[in-house]
Amino acid sequence: MKEKLKEIYDKLEKEYGEQNWWPTISSNKRFEIIIGAILTQNTSWSNVEKAIKNLDKFNFLRKDAIRQLGEEELGQLIKSSGYFKQKAKKLKKIVEFLDSKKEINRENLLQVWGIGNETADSILLYAYDMPVFVIDNYTKRIFSRIGIINEELEYDELQKIFTGNLKNYVGLYKEYHALIVRLGKEICLKMSPKCSGCCLREKCKYEINNRDEK
Predict the structure, then answer these.
(1) Side-chain half-sphere of 63: how many Cα atoms within 13 Å?
(2) Which pLDDT score is estimated for 212?
């Protein structure tokens, strides 16, 4: 498994180069990443970018600004990200958590309303440089199609496949996840994947099965 995961990483890196994720536009990078990790739930990153830019336009990418804004007003500012009423509440709750000065760890983040495994791990990895591997829908889709994982496994079980076979290194985890997202967004689509242009084509059972069916 270690060799397989390394080979896939090497192919993705050769194809796309260094990603330097998480993308930010403000000087308050850590807080912006935390906000983005919540806003990206159940939507595309392009929709999140619109919401982030809107907050930045009015200088609201700050804890004190989110704290002072009403939920309705905040919701209108992040409307492009979808589920904006719920997400406005989630942003208020994460600011309450940060204000509480509780230790930043997975257990405590998961106690915050609206924060699940993927969001918590995204915050830990990208905002706080902690070595946790993020499992998202792109990861499940790509690696199940390759035949390495069963996407029906629980989140923690899927995560262990990666953390148990990769070096415990923040930079590697960031780049690997970012490369997975790049492939998932551009090539390995949920519907009608562009298999002919995939750098992992030779390793992918999904593409082989589709060729056999034809």
Answers:
(1) 12
(2) 45
Are 60 and 76 in contact by the 8 Å Cβ rule? The answer is no
Distance CA 78, CA 43 (A): 12
CA distance 169 to 9: 14
- Cα Rg, the chain, nearest whole Å: 18
pLDDT tens digit sequence for 65-112 = 999 999 999 999 999 999 999 999 999 999 999 999 999 999 999 999
Q: What are the residue boundaries of the structural domains of the chain, listed by start?
A: 2-20+133-213, 29-127
Say whether domain 29-127 belongs to CATH 1.10.340.30.
yes
Q: Between the CA of residue 9 and those of 2, 40, 143, 172, what are the distances in Å?
A: 11, 24, 12, 9
pLDDT of residue 214 exceeding 70, the answer is: no
Q: pLDDT tier at 205 (50, 70, 90 boundaries)?
A: confident
CB-based burial label for 66 (10 Å; 0-12, 13-18, 19+):
buried
Q: CATH topology for 2-20+133-213?
A: Endonuclease Iii, domain 2 (1.10.1670)
pLDDT of residue 210: 65
Amino acid at 9: Y
The rounded distance, in Å, linking the Cα atoms of 11 and 24 is 26
CB 60 within 8 A of CB 25: no
